[in-house]
Structure formats: C-alpha cells, structure tokens
Amino acid sequence: MKLWRIALACVLCTAALLTGCGSSAPESQPPAGKIPVVASFDAMKEFTEAVGGDRVAVTTLIPAGTEPHDFQPTPHNLKSLLHARLFICNGLGMEPWADEVTAAVGNESLITVDASRGVDAIPADSRRERFDPHCWLSLEAAQTEVQNIADALAGADPDHADYYQKNAAAYKEELRSLLEEYRAKFQSVPGRHFVTGHAAFAYLCRDYGLIQDSVAPVFAGGEPGPQQLARLADLCREYGVKTIFVEEMVSPRVSETLAREVGADAETIYTMESAEEGASYTDRMRDNLEKIYRSLQ
Ligand SMILES: [Zn+2]
C-alpha cells in the first residue's frame, strides 16, 4: 500500500479537529467572499486565475518545487480540499491520485474539473494504453482547458457566469494570438528537432510541426542509460541540434553533460508544472517558443 493512502485516513480526523475546536488553519481557509479553488499544479492555477479574476482564491495542491509526476498526497496537502468548491485537474493521467483523494476528503460540495476534457489526446506510448498528459503546453489545447474551467466556474457561480466567460474569451484570444505568431515564425525555420529534459512537449510540437527528443520519458523519473545517451548524442549531431533544453526538476546534470558532449548550449525551458517567481504562463510560453525558434535557425 502506498504511504499516501495510509495518510489519507488521517484527513478526516483533521477535518473533525478543525470543526470541533473551531480553530482555523490559515492555509486552508480562503479569504471571505472569494470562491475557494484548488488547482493540482501551477498551469491549472494560472488558467483558473485568468478566468476567475478577483472572484476566486486559488491554491495549488502540489507544493512548488515538487516534481508533479512523483507527487504523493499528504494530509497537509489535502487540507485545502476540505473547504474548496472546485478542484481543477488537468486529467489525462497527470493526477492519478485525484479520485481516491477526493473520495477520502469527503467534501460533498467539491466539484472536480477535468480541464483537458475534449482535448485531442496524444498516446504516451506505442501501445496506446495511456495518454501523454502535457496538453497545457499547447496553446491550442490550453484554450480548451481555459474554456472548461470557465464553464465549471460559471456552473458553480451562475450569478457571475458572464464575468468568467468574458475573462476566458480575452485570455483565449491572448493564447491564440501567441499561437499564430509562432506558427508563422516556425514555418520559415530550417530545423525541426529539439532536445528537452523530459518528453513534455509533444502537444507543443503538434502545434508547430516540430519533433522533440528527450533525456527522460513522458512521466519523468529515472535517468537515461549510456546507450540512450549515446543515441541522443548521435541524434543531436545528425540534426545539428545547437541547444539542449534543461528543466529545473528533471536531470539537469544529464542534460548539461549531453550539451557539453555535442557542443550545444544548455538553456532553461519551462514545463509550467511548478511556479516560477514573477513569470506568468504566457511569459514562460513565449520564452519557450522564442528559445526553441532561435535554436532551430
Ligand atoms: Zn511532465
């Protein structure tokens, strides 16, 4: 049995404690007048804030700096769900613990939102048994996620439905315009291949007709063996890859070694799985696209 499953049993005790003694845990009590929303990780929080504006108080369940693919819920993480109205998940296997967690918390007014519903999902492996969850890294799929979040907020707070739908329309327009800007730019680049830390960019690649190769697979975790590294190094030489993209949380050491070996630069790329001080989703997406674009010149 996984540790977090045992730990979940304690959540209900925590709930009883909070109600019983009337004490409040500051991190689990949302500001008055705002709709308490829990998002699973950073990109979901950003989309929800863009749509919810000053009507929502959004926290993330997965703490900053935690690799979401390795995340295991603890009672402390789950406290916020006791008082939340909505729980925004990406879906597609990004939060495999979500069903059990919401069942254990027992908050009957909690609405769980599968933000990726309706996205054209990409299989994670050739057996097509599970899907690649990283659709928020596509400006196309992100618009679907934003709309699903807007519809969920409008359903939970119908008096302000127009407000959510207007915010969603404006934000989707911002995403669409960035998507079109880079569709035009990528049409003229000679290269198609880029190398990243973990294979998080299949959806982004689909938007622009690009091809990713990576040091770690879709669900992160583990480091590549010498054979896989040698294959990647060969590929970098074959396609003249000039930049190896490095993520904070996945094998930066391996990516940097590979970059040195093939004489490429190592540059940061954002997966938006964790917050980055002072950089919004669109800031980081533009940064990603511009760096990929320059690396393919
Ligand atoms: Zn990932």
Task: Describe, in plain words, how this protein is organized in 3D.
The protein has 297 residues and is of the alpha/beta class. It folds into 2 domains: 3-180, Rossmann fold; 189-295, Nitrogenase molybdenum iron protein domain (Rossmann fold), CATH 3.40.50.1980. Helix content is 44%, strand content 13%. It is built from 10 helices and 8 strands. It has helices at residues 3-21, 42-52, 75-78, 98-105, 139-156, 161-186, 202-208, 226-238, 252-262, 281-295, and strands spanning 35-39, 56-60, 86-89, 111-114, 193-198, 211-216, 243-246, 265-268. A 4-stranded parallel sheet has the order 2-1-3-4, covered by helices on one side. Helix 7 (202-208) links the parallel strand 5 and strand 6. Helix 1 (3-21) runs parallel beside helix 4 (98-105) and helix 5 runs antiparallel to helix 6 (161-186). The radius of gyration is 20 Å and the shape is globular. The termini are far apart. The site of zinc ion has 7 residues, from loops.
